[in-house]
Amino acid sequence: MKRLAAALLAVSMVLVTACSSGSGANSSTKPTTLKLTGEKDTSKTLTTFVTFEPPPGFHGNPYAETAGPNWSLQPLLYEPLCDYSPLPEREYRPAALESYEVDGKTLTMKLRSDLKWSDGSPVTVDDLMTMLYLEAGRSTLWQVMESAEKVDDSTVRVQFINESPLNLNLLLPNFIMAPTKIYGQWADELKAYVEKYRVWDEANNRYKFDTAGDDVLANITAEINNYKPDAINAALYSGPYVLKGMTSAEAIFEKNPYYYMDIDIQKVRAVRTQNSEAFAAAVQEQTFTVENGGMSPELTAQVEKKFEATLRTIYTPQLSQIGYLFNVQKYPFNIPEVRKAFAYMMDRDTLLKLAEPGSFNSDVHGSGLLPSLIPTYTNEGFMDTLPDYSYNPTKAEELLTSIGWKKVNGKWANEKGKPVKIEIVTVGTWPSLMYPSEALSTMLQEAGWEVEFKPMESANVLDYMSKGEHQVACYFVPGMSTYAHPWEVYQQTYLGAYATRMNFPALKAGEDRVITAPSTGKQYNVTQILAKLYQSTDEKEIKELTQELATVTSDYLPFIGLIEKTAPLRIYDTKLSVADGEIGQSQISFYWYGNLNNMLMKQLRAGELYFVK
């Protein structure tokens, strides 16, 4: 609790500083209220902003690796076990669960008796068990969980290995997405996989999976990926809405007729724009009831001017960051000096001006940590011991010449005298990705780098990274949005999805990730350090382990952050009531934190989201 309170204070200080330093958080909107009173109007449609793979590729399997209901659609379609927020401190409000109880290492979950799938069949404890087994091979859960047991027709008991405060994050925010009658066959196979191939890892004080089971897991994963049900006619949903229609431009949702509670908004239109120009046009045409899409400072100013009489804007915490992900196995970014030279070429003050309002600089030391939480998880003065990658073209040039590169006719050539061409990919539809990376490409070209700037669709960027085809990508980099804890940053970096996106060598099941610091040659078993950090409840030890990971990350530099962001929530419809907050300001102790549709659905369940007549 003390750490979370300190984290909140740190977030408050950074956000207030960001918003008072010309970041754009203070807009020209009129000081109206967010929460409205009056007779509710349940006939209106709420229009929100989403991203998804368009038809015909889209399908209804949320466990497939591509083209199913993703993070922006899941809050509309599925019920979480609990609504969750780390702000102002970790809190889990039961949703699909009627209640939960923690007793040391034991978590007891009691499922609601009135929760149903969208075909009217009950959501059962068996479905909850199916969900748990589908996490095998997908998350850390089966490494830190001793057992999961169906106690009775409403209760599941989970036994963890230790009392880590992070245990609940692995389970309680998860969505109920796996009806046993559909996914049970794979849950049974994964249960057998867990029972046969899970072994105790003495070094890390947790379980790991034997490499003998790699092919088994790969086959099960392939089977799950190949299941692509019709999202409208065959998929089942547990949340407030069901999908009723979809085109390449939008998805239509209507109230789930079997949802367990009355909701005040019966229909949702979710708009997908293909690029930044289309999104800008949609905003200018007042397509959205509410949105938090990225906009350039110029477009933001135009929108605030055009709708100054009606627009209400607040800035919600994200605990996320945008920056550059290096392909650590692909030339030339397999060379640490090149990664560091690239970092030194980032004129952050200039690039920040091109990012969406509400953004502020990420850590210039390359530690991976978010500036808003650095004071909570490191000792005073520690960050000064790390390299400072602030804009410094001279240092960039020194690093390149140190590996034998030199300029030929004003262009950088490698130690063999051959020209070096680099490619920067990014998502063309997000201004905070597109505009700063386009400007950085120009800066690099002026400094003698040969650069190809390649904007793409979001799904294509992810696919490009997952296949290891990129050199450097401007994208979201590891953040702390789920746990508000440094374990999350480094778990994502070295063992999670971002390890794939940065093309770290694949690990066999149970294999440790060992990183050698380029400057010192010191080896860091980051798998073991992360295991200790996950388990630790001692503040001093947490800081020591965090600093160890920050040190190797700053030196190895698999990615470099550019901005930490808050999200501007813009409300265009004057009749929409949302949870109260301060208009034009960053929300500090904001329980309604989260991505747009997660935030909206939390408010819907709490009776905070509705239209008035």
Account of the protein in words:
The structure is a single chain. With 613 residues, this protein is an alpha+beta fold. The protein is 32% helix and 23% strand. It is built from 20 helices and 27 strands. The strands form nine sheets. Strands 15, 16, 17, 20, 21, 22 and 25 form a seven-stranded mixed beta sheet that branches. A four-stranded mixed beta sheet has the order 1-14-13-12, with no helix packed on it. The longest helix has 18 residues, at 2-19. The chain is globular, with a radius of gyration of 24 Å. The relative contact order is 0.17. Mean pLDDT is 91; it is low at 1-29.
Layout of strands and helices, then pairs:
Blueprint: H1 2-19, E1 45-49, H2 74-77, E2 79-80, E3 82-85, E4 91-94, E5 97-103, E6 106-111, H3 125-134, H4 141-144, E7 145-152, E8 155-160, H5 167-171, E9 175-176, H6 180-197, E10 198-201, E11 206-209, H7 214-226, E12 241-246, E13 250-255, E14 267-271, H8 276-284, E15 290-291, H9 297-306, E16 312-326, H10 336-344, H11 348-352, E17 359-361, H12 374-377, H13 393-402, E18 406-408, E19 411-413, E20 421-427, H14 431-446, E21 450-456, H15 458-466, E22 472-477, H16 486-494, H17 497-501, E23 514-516, E24 523-525, H18 526-535, H19 539-556, E25 559-571, E26 576-577, H20 596-605, E27 610-611
Parallel strand pairs: 1-14, 20-21, 20-22
Antiparallel strand pairs: 2-9, 3-4, 5-6, 6-8, 7-8, 10-11, 12-13, 13-14, 15-25, 16-22, 16-25, 17-25, 18-19, 23-24, 26-27
Helix pairs in contact: 3-6, 6-7, 10-13, 16-18, 18-19
